[in-house]
Each structure stands twice: as structure tokens, then as C-alpha cells.
Design a protein that fits this description.
Largest interface: A-B, 50 and 50 residues
Oligomer: homodimer
Order of helices and strands of chain A: HHHHHHHHH
Helix content of chain A: 55-70%
Shape of chain A: elongated
Strand content of chain A: under 5%
Number of strands of chain A: 0
Structural class of chain A: mainly alpha
Largest sheet of chain A: none
DNA sequence: AAGCCTATCAACACCGTGTCGAGAATGCCG
DNA sequence: CGGCATTCTCGACACGGTGTTGATAGGCTT
């Protein structure tokens, strides 16, 4: 806890050109408005004008703060990405002490990070249809999870607890993508979808059996 | 010439208002043009004008044949859906004779149906971001697969070959969605993605172990 | 007061969509 | 043949959304 970040990450620069100003408030207001609107409507149904009106400025004033609607979403996503990274690291630490429980906990954090920001998740996947930056950002997130899981699988194999039939990375990729897809379906109320009450059990079962189960018959 | 199909299938009606005409040819030309263009560019990068020019008619003439760009894609998808249904039924028949081989074969047909129409698949997922009809159509396809797989799992359980830990339908949903996501990633060259050579093995392994493996520890 | 940022907006140019009404082209029937 | 309907095509328009630009206002510094 006690996150004492004094230096703001010089990072992405998706927002306004210059830093520092009273209008920082406006910038944040745009972000929260976007998140609020995304709870009710899909990204495609939200115009720059909606965003501007939601904050009480004109459409063109919006462009002072963000170069486009997409940039707003990407900024929102950046935050979630950061949280996802933290959750991932926490899950890794846990593995050292209790490998068997780690899978379920990893899946749970996946669920929580995604679930806490459903509108943002929905927006970034929608955006990925048209925006390559969104695709790259998201694939970076996925890649982080996959690498993590690959390492974890390999650790279990080294320990002698898991068989070596498949390339660990392929297996990890399939499992992580399953989680993404299954949770996404739940969060946007698709049908068919796994029941939300059972989702953790279901995913955990598939993970465990796939990782520890031998590949008897080819 | 001599096109002697007098009764056109009363089917989907996505296309032109009236039936019957020499312009049937044009309608088909639009569809093949769309499929061709989708091989190079994403749906968002294709305008109605591109489609019209590709066929050699004016943009407004296009609207005589289809009410919108989306309708063209949906028509294309209808075909694939039909093929998917056929592949699905074939897989089911196979199960009766050899339950153990059926899983792999089912996954292979999934792979083939998807793979044979990559541009169309890409288009319908992109379209789902903005078009509810696309979402419904696709979820119908998924639901078909899930129901099929649920039955197959239950058959194996009745036979005493598979344990009953999880709700069969939840498990089936997770597995089918995994396939969708994993194959989709491969087909649109995402990273991370499972290696295309190993994908059938990887997916089959996860399916088998999840279906036949007991859920030892909760 | 002069000058410089920050912030705001109206007006404009642009692009893609979908509609409408005015006709060609084609074919059928009397 | 000539008249009429259906099929098809197009130019012109209205609309809605995006992103840019140039003019301007207010505040803070020096």
C-alpha cells in the first residue's frame, strides 16, 4: 500500500500538449465523463460532442485537451493496464509460497481487474476494430499475462509437478485467451456465457487439468 | 442466361427488396467484391463507395441492392454460418462411432470453417462492435456449437467415461469460447498467439483434460 | 502596460452515409 | 408498332460526425 508516487510517470502523453494547469481538472472531468457515459452506451454511440457537453464545454474546446475521442479511451485504458500489471505481480509472489493455490488466485485477480472496469474493457475491444494503437496496447497487456503464466507453468514442470507435453507458452496463451474471452462474454452480457457464479470454478478447473494432466492420447 | 430458378429461397432477405432480375449478377458481384476487399483491408477501411466502384456502379446504385454496407457483411456471414452448421452436424455423427476421436475432429472442423473464411470472420467481429444484428447472429452460431458440445459431454458422462464435477454447459461454453478466441488471434495475426502448427494439439489437449480430468482439489 | 501563456469558441472544410426524384433501359402486352 | 411497368442508374441533397484554424478573452508575470 502507501503508494507514494511523487513523480508522475513521464509516460504516455496521450492527453494535453503541455502539462500543469488549472485545466487539469477539466482533463480529469473529461475522463470521468467518458467512463460514466460508457456505462450506458457503447463507444460508437458516444460522440465528441457528448463528451464536451458532459463537461460543459464546447466541442472544439475538447480538442484542446485531447486530440480525439480515441485518445480519451486509451488514457482510460492506460490506468487499467497499470492495475493489471500490479495484480499480475501480486499473483506471482503468491506462487512462491503456495503453487497450488496460485492458479485460482491468479484467475481471481484477472476477474477482478477486468470486472472493476467493465466499461473501459468493452471500449478498448470495440476500439480495437478501428484503432491500431488500441490493438497494440491490448496485445501488450495480454502478452504480459502470457509470459507470467508461461513462467509459472515452467516452474511447476521444473519442480516435477507438471508434465511437459506441450510448449508451455502455447498452453499459457490458450488459457489466458480463454479467460479473456469467457470473462468478456460475461461482462457484456453475451449469450452464451458461463454463469458468473461458476466462472472462477470453471476456469480454474480447466487450467488445473490442462496444466497438470498428462496428454495421454495424441 | 437461362437462369431457371423461379422460386428464390424465401430466406434471409438481407439483400434486394424484390426478387428476380438480371441484376442478380450484380448482387453477387457486390458480395464477391466485398470478400475480396476484406482480404486486404479491415471493414472500417472500406466505404460503400469502394464497394460500388469495385463493381463499376455508382454509390447510390449500390443502395438498390443492399440497404447498407453492414447488410453485405451479414449476407456473407450467413453463408459461413450455414457451413458451420453442416460441419457441426458432421462432427456429431462421428461421435457415435468413435467418441475419443470426435473431440479432435470437432476442433478441426471448427478450425477449417473459420480458417476458410478469415476475412468474413474478421469482418463480423469488427462489425459486432457497432451492429447488434451482427452480435445476435454470431451469438447464435456460438450457441449452436455450445449446445452441441454440451450434449457430447453429457453423452460421455452417461457412458461413465467422464466425471460430473462441473455443469456441462459451463464447461462447454468455456471451451468453445477458448477455441474462438485462440483461432481468431491466429487468423488476424495477433500477438500473442498460439503457433498455428500446434494449435490443434494444444486445443485438443485442453479439451480432453478438462472433460475427462477430475476436479480433484477445489 | 506589455507580453505571454492558458483556455475558449464560432466558423469552416471534409468525409461518409443514406434518401429522393428524375430519368434510362428492358421487356411484356395489346 | 406503341404504351406501360418494372428494373435499374444516377446526380443532388441533407445530415451527422470529425478535426482545424484564427480570432479573442482572461489571468499571471516582469
Amino acid at each position: 500500500m502507501s503508494t507514494s508516487e511523487q513523480i508522475v510517470r513521464a509516460a504516455p502523453s496521450r492527453g494535453r500538449r503541455s502539462a500543469r494547469a488549472a485545466g487539469d481538472e477539466r482533463e480529469r472531468a473529461i475522463l470521468t465523463t467518458a467512463e460514466r457515459l460508457l456505462e450506458r452506451r457503447s463507444l460508437a454511440e458516444i460522440s465528441v460532442d457528448d463528451l464536451a457537453q458532459g463537461v460543459g464545454i464546447s466541442r472544439s474546446a475538447f480538442y484542446f485537451y485531447f486530440p480525439s475521442k480515441d485518445a480519451v479511451v486509451l488514457t482510460l485504458v492506460d490506468r487499467v493496464v497499470e492495475q493489471a500489471g500490479a495484480a499480475r505481480d501480486r499473483a506471482l509472489e503468491r506462487q512462491a509460497s503456495d503453487p497450488s493455490a496460485a492458479w485460482r488466485e491468479g484467475i481471481e485477480s484477472f476477474y477482478e481487474v477486468f470486472g472493476a472496469h467493465r466499461p473501459v474493457i468493452r471500449a478498448v475491444t470495440d476500439l480495437s476494430a478501428t484503432n491500431s494503437e488500441a490493438r497494440e496496447l491490448w496485445s501488450q497487456v495480454m502478452d504480459g499475462w502470457v509470459s507470467q503464466v508461461t513462467e509459472m507453468i515452467e516452474a511447476e514442470r521444473t519442480r516435477g509437478a507438471a508434465p511437459r507435453d506441450l510448449a508451455a507458452r502455447d498452453l499459457a496463451t490458450a488459457l489466458v485467451q480463454m479467460n479473456e474471452r469467457v470473462l468478456h462474454a460475461i461482462f457484456i452480457d453475451e449469450t452464451p456465457a458461463v454463469g458468473e457464479r461458476q466462472v472462477i470454478d470453471t476456469l480454474t478447473h480447466v487450467w488445473r487439468s490442462a496444466i497438470y494432466g498428462a496428454c495421454d492420447e495424441r
